[in-house]
Structures are given as structure tokens and as C-alpha cells.
Amino acid sequence: MRIRSNTYEKVCHQIAVDISNKVKNGNHLVLGLATGSTPIGIYKELVKMKPDFSKTTTFNLDEYVGLKETHDQSYRYFMNKHLFQYFDFEQSYFPNEQNHHEYDIMISNYGGIDVQILGIGTNGHIAFNEPNSDRHSSTRVVDLTQNTIEDNSRFFEDIKDVPTQAYTMGLSSIMEAEEIHLVAVGKHKKDILERSMNGEITPEIPASYLQQHKKLKVYYSDR
Ligand code: GLP
To answer: Could you give the number of structural domains in the chain?
Structure first.
């Protein structure tokens, strides 16, 4: 699998250009969104480019269980801060307690995701599909691994404040996305990215399933 290496700025710019091109001429778009430190630069570029998102619906990949939307570490809060406050999207959805059983049906009612932005966890998770997730898994509540809790504790005052569960889009809807941009930033992601893209396809590394995706672009930046 080809990995495109470039500076973080160039990677983010390229992905933002690709997304902006999709909504030229007022086209409809279903955009799959990710949180974490990785996509922040993409959102910054989009804010600068000001594409017309008036006919764009967004589906976020995941959300913590038990955090209110107003909590500064909730993914809704993150998206409001980095993207939603700047645009008027048609609709924006997150998996939550009420809708997680229907989330995949909601996505398919929109015709599936057109473009999905994806980061990768240091254990090879995508969204919150932790190691040993089923290739055909649907949107559900998952227990976070100790590795993920530790990785994400950098955003919380105390590791005890990190939620231990999350709602995550399943691998099924992610794999059905028309196009995926997978981004890994930092030397600590280099090895897992390489194993995911050029190693064995295995449930132990959920990102390795992406090798089977028909339209995947992979980006790496050492920062
Ligand atoms: C989080 C998110 C993922 C994200 C990953 C990497 O736990 N659930 O969607 O891709 O971890 O985060 P970061 O971009 O901050 O390294």
C-alpha cells in the first residue's frame, strides 16, 4: 500500500482541497468526521477555504459514553470548536445512547459516507474499533483498552477522568465509505501505520482491514 509522506501542513491542505472539490457546484456530500489531534489541521484548512457545506451532512465516528455535549473533552465539543461553529451543515450526527442501534441505517439512508477522514490509534484502532473488532461490526458501545485510555489521558486532568467506554461507528460502515483518507502523524505512529498497511490483515490490527478498501489514500507526516 502506498503511503504518501509529506509535511503535516501539506497533507492537511491536500485533504481539504479534495473535500472542497466535492462540494463545488453545490453538490450533496456525506462526510465522515474524526476527532483527535490528527484532523485539526484539516479542519483549519477547511475553515480557510470556506467550501459550501450547505448540502453536506456529517457523521462523526465516535463519542465517549458518559460525557455531556458541553464537556470540553466530548467529541461534540471538539467538533463545535474546530469546525461546526464556522459552517452551516445540513445535519451533523454523532453516535449516542439514543441512536447507536440505528446509526448504520441512518448512514445508509443517506446513501453511505462519501468521504471519510480517519486517524489511527497507536494500537491500530480506527474510530474506537479496538483490536479484535469484527470486520463486519456495527455501531455499538465498546470498552476502551488500557492503551487507548492512557493515550487519551493527555487530554484530561487525571487518567481517572478518561471515560472507559465509547460509542463507535463499526468497521462495516467505515469500510463501506466511498473514499477514505487515513492520516497518521508523528514518529510514534510510523510502525503501526506500516504494519497496518503492509502487514498481515488481522483483527488484532483493525486498521489492517483498510488494505481491502477500494479507494483509500494513506498519509504520513513525522510532524
Ligand atoms: C482516538 C479516536 C480516534 C483517533 C485516534 C488517534 O481515540 N477515537 O478516532 O483516530 O484516537 O488520535 P490522535 O489523532 O489524537 O492521535
So the answer is: 1
In the structure grid, which three cell numbers stand for residue 5, read together?
Answer: 509522506
What is the domain-level CATH number for residue 8?
Answer: 3.40.50.1360
For ligand 1, say whether the CB of 56 is within 6 Å of any of its atoms. Answer: no
Residues 202-211: tens digit of each pLDDT: 999 999 999 9
Cα distances (Å, whole numbers) of residue 148 to 37, 127, 141, 175, 221: 14, 11, 15, 22, 21
Cell numbers found for residue 97: 445512547
Residue nearest to atom 11 of ligand 1 (CA): 121
pTM tops 0.90: yes
CA of 88 to the centre of ligand 1 (A): 25
Is residue 143 part of the annotated active site? The answer reads no
Closest by alpha carbon to 173, among 137, 210, 132, 122?
A: 137
